[in-house]
Write a structure and sequence with these properties.
The chain is α/β, with parallel strands linked by helices and 192 residues long. It is 34% helix and 16% strand. It has a single domain, classed as 3-Layer(aba) Sandwich (Rossmann fold).
Length: 192
Amino acid sequence: MKVGLYFGSFNPIHIGHLIIANHIAEFSDLDQVWFVVTPHNPFKKKSTLLDNYQRLEMVFRATKEYPNLKPSDIEFNLPQPNYTVNTLAYLEEKHPDYEFALIMGEDNLKGLHKWKNYEVILKRHHIYVYPRISRKEVDTQFNDHEKIHFINAPVMQISSTFIRKAIAEGKNVKPMFPEHVWEYLDQMNFYK
């Protein structure tokens, strides 16, 4: 089984995340996409970041109607601060029959050369890149790399930062969420 790992804080998860993940699950050679909820770094103060399990609950609610999209708390129990290369090694050990790939926005690809052991990641894993509007150029070493696949997914201009700010300002952003996620957010009074 080929699994794409979509890492993020998902604070909150929104339709943009789902559209990208579902597009990749349906229109690439990946069998599933796992939303890997990244834990709150205990050394960083970020008052707008919800608890790990609250964000995982939103991802669970968002993906429950999509059999090829799965929530993952795999990083919750790994030593912090955690690096993607370590998570990949752990997953390979835990699921030796699976082939894991990374999913990232083009903006993240532009900084990949700064990641810990990025050469190891590129040697062992494919990377599926979805388009983002950004001014920086992709490092030329990644342009024609055999392990990097540029996906013609829809360009999503919705951000979790924008959504949190809009909720805090009392704006109606309900259309930006799957119904189950909006109900939970609203009921819990998140970001208000």
